[in-house]
Amino acid sequence: MNPEHAAHGLLAEFPSPAALLQAARAAHEAGFRRLEAYSPMPVEGLVEALGSTDGGLPRLALIGGIVGGVLTFALQWVSVTIDYPLNVGGRTPAWPGLIPATFEMTVLGAALAVFFGVLLRSGLPRLYHPVFNDDGFAAASSDGFFLCIDAADPLYDPRQTRSFLENLQPVRVAVVDA
Amino acid sequence: MSSVGVHSYGSISQKISGIVLTAGTARWWVISFAACSLLTLVFFGAIGYLFYTGVGIWGLNVPVVWAFDITNYVWWIAIAMSGTFISAVLHLTRQPWGASISRFAEAMTVFALAIAGMFPILHLGRPWFFYWLTPYPNVMALWPQWRSPLVWDFFAILAYLLLSLLFWYLGLIPDFATLRDRAPGRGTQITYGLLALGWRGEARHWQRRQSAQLLLAGLAVPLVVSVHSVVGLDFAAGNTPGWHSTIFPPFFVAGAMFSGFAMAMTIVVLLRRAFQLGDYITARHLDNLAKLILAMGLVLAYSYVMELFMAWYSADRYEIYTALNRMRGPYAPVYWSLIFCVVVVPQALWSRRVRHSPWTLFGISILINVGMWLERFMLIVTSEHRDFLPSAWGMFYPTIWDWAILIGSIGFFGWLLLLFVRFVPVISMAEMRELIDHQRGAS
């Protein structure tokens, strides 16, 4: 099999977060857009260096919270006013008594939205990914810092991209099989 | 400052994942696991007998209808309160020293909460109907009583348990990925691989995870306060003298923080010793935790004083009698022991020497845990045993089954913790790597 054809992209390993950050900036400046960086811990500024930002989780939390709270309040309201009004000693149901459960479910709704939001937006769980084909990639969860240029990038050229990456002083550059 | 600076990214992975991935198991682990397994059997055996026979096997009866069961419940849920709280507050205030203690604090929360959640079910006369607490369409056309704190409690525990689990798991995903990549055997690889959900450390994933952790931490803090306030309301909503007090929700929250910090201290000292984690969990951690315990202890002492003051100020003879009866009635030894454990003993923490001696801290934290259990027992039982009519007075004496369930639950907690320290990284490796980065940046 010709690796140049079946390549997922080119993977360069860097010795430190600073080197990775620099390489990511350089690659983005060179015009590469289908870039991905892998590191064993969050590196500040890396996402911006790759030229993308990703917000939206706080909004998801807000929506989840509103859904949880409104549904819980509505459920209780229906139960105490329409389905089963309970009049004990002239004390008809009042809304303050419905607040604790509403509050708890608001928080739970927001938390569930955040948690599943992270996973869905990140495309996880996804147990297989081409970068795992690289034998040294296991270091990405310990002490390796990787930059991957996708073969689908318009500027991608097996030879030129490789020499571009090699100029960034990586530990090594390798072709990742698709 | 903690001394992770001497470590590299690689040595952190090696040290912390090594605890999990090593083939051999330390002798102390095997012995304590055997002991805790035995107690776990006692716990579930006692529960089985309880379900088979009924709550009559316990010492409770009219007028003391809440005794060890609810004492255990409040005690465990209080221990559960501070784990997620510690971790969330340290996260929100961006305290780098928190990285090494938040993981097991969260684990402590999840386990203690799971145990706490069992007790309200155990104390039901007909435990198989516990699901009546949930609103679900049913042929009886019945709904939960929404105005009851017991129903609020159900929602509060549910929300807190799920949020704590999610918070804990979200923090664990990258560490499971590290274990997957370092696992020696195929089986371990697959297990941790599945748990890691395919985590590969992509920059955007990290960013989302950080954002999510911050959000969950922010959500957790008010939730913690609400959960234990609702526990306080379980009592305050009753008209029993000694319970019927607006001070209960904040008073219970203070007590919960206090006992949770103490349990965290108990575990941190043992963990640090067992795995030689002195580089990660330093004297500074213990010192800070001790200061928190001292501060919460003072808040709690103030609450005790206010409780007495309010009893006197109410001019209600039943309230006054209950307060005096606690101090000189048949349960007076419980009252004075708890005052000793909870108010007197923590004052030793003013001394810097005490705060820097792990085993003294361990002893103090054990005494506080005992004291806090006695406090709940005192609050619950002394209020019930002598209420309005002297003809209805009575005493509570625990039976062997009361003790079996209390001691068994402690064994079960230890059993879960031991499994946790053996199979899950006890310290967040990702956060320790960040910490190295910070320290290198600073120097």
Give the gist of this structure.
The complex is a heterodimer of chains A (178) and B (443). Chain A is an alpha+beta fold and 178 residues long. Helix content of chain A is 45%, strand content 13%.
Overview of the molecule:
The complex is a heterodimer of chains A (178) and B (443). Chain A is an alpha+beta fold and 178 residues long. Chain A has helices spanning 3-6, 17-29, 46-49, 57-83, 99-121, 158-166, and strands at residues 7-14, 35-38, 145-150, 172-177. Chain A has two domains: 3-54 and 127-177, no CATH class; 57-121, no CATH class. The longest helix of chain A has 27 residues, at 57-83. Chain B has one domain: Formate dehydrogenase/DMSO reductase domain (Formate dehydrogenase/DMSO reductase fold, Up-down Bundle), CATH 1.20.1630. Chain B has 15 helices and no strands. Chain B has helices at 9-21, 27-53, 68-92, 99-122, 149-182, 186-196, 203-236, 248-274, 283-314, 317-328, 332-344, 352-355, 358-385, 400-423, 429-442. The longest helix of chain B is centred in the middle third of the chain and has 34 residues, at 149-182. Chains A and B meet through β2, α4 and α5 of A and α1, α5, α7 and α15 of B.
